[in-house]
């Protein structure tokens, strides 16, 4: 999973700047999505998973940082960097008192900022891995309920590869891999009792999954 392009949501009403940033990010193996309006950014954030958010402080029709403050209330929000081409003490002070991951002044040095942006995005991706894997396992189990169910889907191999390669070596990782192996071995031979017991075990994994990190200290 860590080999897949990092997904970034960029919110800026300056179309030329946003398209320039997106082109640079795409050239260095990011997968950027652009929103030119706060409502568009909110929809994308609801519909897709992102590893990083980059949002302008000043947006038409809103007070400074309004969308940022709203986005920060979303559970498990990705790291959010704010940016502005018109730095002012008041907005900088307010941003410093929000759990944002960075404050950038446009135009900023992409090469200098790239390591910080990538590190924040990768950290978020690692922290959301347990939830991603558990959703995949839940999908596999749900499919076994169907009378027309076939062997566990090819997605099971992808889940196993992700868990083996990207999760830290812990008892939780071992339990996830063991659950995948049970699914692989039993295939169509599940009985209702087996499904019930495996679902209980999966719920225990959910309950014991590593907690997400605390919001980053403002930078």
Short structural summary:
The protein is an alpha/beta fold and 219 residues long. 53% of the residues lie in helices and 12% in strands.
CATH homologous superfamily classification of the largest domain? Response regulator
Strand order of the largest sheet: 2-1-3-4-5
How many β-strand runs? 5
**Global shape:** elongated
CATH topology term of the largest domain: Rossmann fold
Can you give a write-up of this model?
This protein has 219 residues and is of the alpha/beta class. It has two domains: 6-123, Response regulator (Rossmann fold); 127-208, no CATH class. The protein is 53% helix and 12% strand. It has eight helices and five strands. It has helices at 15-27, 38-47, 66-71, 89-96, 110-144, 155-166, 171-186, 192-208, and strands at 6-11, 30-35, 52-56, 80-84, 102-105. A five-stranded parallel sheet has the order 2-1-3-4-5, sandwiched between helices. α4 (89-96) links the parallel β4 (80-84) and β5 (102-105). α5 (110-144) packs across α6 (155-166). 25% of the residues are buried. Residues 212-219 have low confidence and may be disordered.
